[in-house]
Design a protein that fits this description.
With about 500 residues, this protein is α+β, with helices and mostly antiparallel strands. Helices cover about 25% and strands about 25% of the residues. The strands form six sheets. Strands 10, 11, 12, 13, 14, 15 and 16 form a seven-stranded mixed beta sheet that branches. The protein has a five-stranded mixed barrel with strand order 1-2-3-9-8. It has a three-stranded antiparallel beta sheet with strand order 17-18-19, with no helix packed on it. The longest helix is centred in the C-terminal third of the chain and has 25 residues. It is globular, with a radius of gyration of 29 Å.
Amino acid sequence: MKFPIQVSTRPPNRVQPRLLRLLAIFPVMLLLTTVPAPAATVNGFVTKIDSSTTLDVGRLRVVLNNKTHCENGSTYGLVILPAEDSMMHISVFYRLRPHIYLRFDSIQTIPITCDARNVAIGTRVRIMGHKSNLTQLEAERFIEYVVPNKKEFTGKVLLEENPQLRYISGHPVGKLWMDGYGITVTPQTKFSFASTSNLHHDKSINANMWIGYNATPLANQSITANSLTFAVNNVYPQYDIYNHADAFGGNYTKIEAPDYSRRTPGLIRFNYGQPIEIIPDQRVQESVSTLGMTLIPSYQMELPDSDATKVNFRFYVVQSSEAIQEKKLLTINGMLPFNTSGWSGRAEYSYNKSKLYNMIDNTIAMQNGVILIPDRVLSRLHDRAQLAALLSYSITSILQNQIYNAFLITESTSRYDILHRFNEMLQINEQTLRIGIRQMYLAGYDISEAPFAWAVAQGKPANNPVIDSKHPDKEIPWYAAYAFNYISHYYSDVDYSKLKRG
């Protein structure tokens, strides 16, 4: 018996298929909702603070909450460890000799209250947390690195700005910008003059004088001079290590200008090795030279040609070369020794002397006023402000006799004072950075470009922040941390909209 086929007029039951589909995707949805945001480690510099819980590192928004663990550590410190290549040597001496490097992640940190308002613009930070999106990081651990406040400022510097002083009862008061610091002169400041200076009155103080100073920082971040000792800027032949045959083995230079009409390169000849080619592009040469001349301190430009202290600055864009052979070639690359074994072999100096030197990523400043910019360095720079930072650094190293001072340090043969020499080179670089940034600011260039200018010139990443960095001491150059800290302390009220990048 056949049963009749009954056709229903009701719509088909779709509850079950829908339920099956929901059950099928439920594990995936559950997985997506339980996977935490990707972990990230960020190293960089604070650029904006909006509240007690939100701040920006570069363009990355960082959010603090009640679970964030905040700490405080030092910006950088010296670390001495056994040499990396120690196992390659048989001698016990070679196995035990140390190397020195600069690290950013403090060996010890201390807990602090999590309040972003206590962090200064320009402060270097290291943050571990989870990125909720491409532009925001939820912080779990927040480390603020600070440069310890100095209890005393001391140094010797060539005054590159005319003093801003007035006289009260015959005693000068006001401000002196020197060594990159705005130092207040009070009626209690003691004045003295070197016996060879032939200066007998305070009103003889002007730019182009050497000043030894001792000053004290105050709570409001101002600096008050305790004592100032002045001396005239005498010129000695040994300072010019490139033009005097009796200085350091007879190094001197001879410059042959390019023939722009025939596109024939110019030449810079040294006493040793192969010459360096000057790029035969008049537009480029004039552009770089014009910019460089704007960075020379005003007092220098106003000196008559007959003045022995006037420096004949010349700027040349040259062909990058991998093999510049010169007996005593000092170069500037904004770097410090990273690892060294007795300051020889692989040691890197901020002013590097070498018989075979790679000139691809560095500028060369000579005590006779010649400044060389490799074409590859120029091509890497993002704007004219970054070029201004490099040229200003180079100009400062010449005027402050830092090339000569660094030469004496690097010539030292003692293997027992490595740390002392390292500190001397560090102080030279810090001073050159400070004064160079100051002159860059006076010329109207955006000083926020200065911290990363050397990294850009050398083809290194200059990101702020550096994300997922496992080696912060290698990723962020020491000079970037120092320059950012310096700018945040002494240029906190700068209107950057009035500064140019070009």
